[in-house]
Amino acid sequence: MPRSKPFSGKARKEQMKNKKASKQQQNSDSFDYLSHNIRRNQTNQGRRSMPTVPGMNKLTTVFEREPDDEVMKRKIDSTRRIDRSPTKVEEAEEAWGRIHPLPLPYPIPVEGQDFPIIGIPVRPPWDKFMSHDQLDKQEESSFVEWMKSIYEKYSRADLNFFEHNLEVWRQIWRSVEKADIAILLLDARIPLFHLSEGYLHYIRHVEKKDVVICINKCDLIHPYVVQSWLVFLERKFPDIPIVPFYVPKSTSGKVAQPW
């Protein structure tokens, strides 16, 4: 048996480096569709966050990362006491101006005032004769075009956080396709934050599926507030069942009931 050759620390380090680079390349293929937008905005003041750890869960959520100074401004502003008395947009903007020199950082939702509904990406047409590679490339190409259209049409200030990971959208497409009925869960404390009208439109008008809206955690807020949300949502979506959900009173004492 031939004697093994000495393996220096430098050579070992180079070997590990090459092995790591090879593994990263193998695990980065599923996120190539993001690179068009990410590299274009790769700066310290504004860049899109994306998975970089090899072997990480493909369903990891990917959002656009905001500049650190913008995040800090909102943290400071969150300590300001909210004036809840105004009921109209003009009154709210006037009240804001009296206590804060900056303009409103977000639109005030007011009943009867509609905002643009941005549609979610739709799975492109496919058939059972397509190969796995053909299907992947078609979905990636369609998703990249959708991403480009969003950032070309809307400014960053007009957009909320939305999913940049195609794998998550693929799971949504396939789940809705196989479902008989979709249940949209809204947190009773802030229902509109979880209500995506683009997603609702996709389920009802693209996939032609029935929907039930469930308002969860209703036991955490006052019954009057729950009833107000029910009235609002039933008026906004008269043909969709709206169901409030409460945790029953606990006999063990482990579940607190505020009311």
CATH architecture of one domain: 3-Layer(aba) Sandwich
Structural class: mainly alpha
Percent helix, as a range, is 40-55%
**Unreliable sequence segments:** 26-56, 101-106
CATH class of one domain: Alpha Beta
Shape: extended
Largest sheet: 3 strands, parallel
Summarize the structure.
The protein is mainly α and 259 residues long. It has helices at 9-27, 35-40, 68-77, 89-99, 132-153, 166-178, 197-206, 223-236; strands spanning 47-48, 64-65, 181-187, 210-216, 242-244. The strands form two sheets. A three-stranded parallel beta sheet has the order 3-4-5. The protein has a two-stranded antiparallel ribbon with strand order 1-2.
What labels would you give this structure?
259 residues; mainly alpha; Rossmann fold; three-stranded parallel β-sheet; extended; G domain-containing protein; GTP-binding; GNL1-like
Describe it for me?
One of its GO terms (molecular function) is GTPase activity. It is found in: Plastid, Chloroplast. One of its GO terms (cellular component) is chloroplast. Residues 1-55 are annotated as: Disordered. Keywords: GTP-binding, Nucleotide-binding. This protein is mainly alpha-helical. It has a domain at 180-259: Rossmann fold. It is built from 8 helices and 5 strands. It has helices at residues 9-27, 35-40, 68-77, 89-99, 132-153, 166-178, 197-206, 223-236; strands spanning 47-48, 64-65, 181-187, 210-216, 242-244. β4, α8 and β5 form a beta-alpha-beta unit. It is extended, with a radius of gyration of 24 Å. Mean pLDDT is 75; it is low at 26-56 and 101-106.
